[in-house]
């Protein structure tokens, strides 16, 4: 089992339809590749966690890096792990509040991301996800 997390900057304003399309494609591909994870979006930046077999995670991440809907992709976390944290979700999407950027119309903003994180998540990794709103372009 392998876990990878990255942050990136959206290259354009994304609508709720755009985000739904991203989520649906991720769920389909991730399910086929035995990948799970979570995608956070704050109106400007993404943070995503992918977990599963290392080769599959890296293959999907390579495709993600080539996606023109974002830029400045920076890996913030990589580790081998024996635990799958998001075991029930091929991909979750959470819109989080931001000091900059605006959530797309029609999307519900999650005020407390901690409610959607697994209780088993390591403290240091939980802190990274909970503090998402620090990257600016």
From TrEMBL:
<feature type="domain" description="BLUF">
    <location>
        <begin position="1"/>
        <end position="92"/>
    </location>
</feature>
<dbReference type="InterPro" id="IPR036046">
    <property type="entry name" value="Acylphosphatase-like_dom_sf"/>
</dbReference>
<protein>
    <submittedName>
        <fullName>BLUF domain-containing protein</fullName>
    </submittedName>
</protein>
<dbReference type="InterPro" id="IPR007024">
    <property type="entry name" value="BLUF_domain"/>
</dbReference>
<dbReference type="GO" id="GO:0071949">
    <property type="term" value="F:FAD binding"/>
</dbReference>
<dbReference type="Pfam" id="PF04940">
    <property type="entry name" value="BLUF"/>
</dbReference>
<dbReference type="GO" id="GO:0009882">
    <property type="term" value="F:blue light photoreceptor activity"/>
</dbReference>
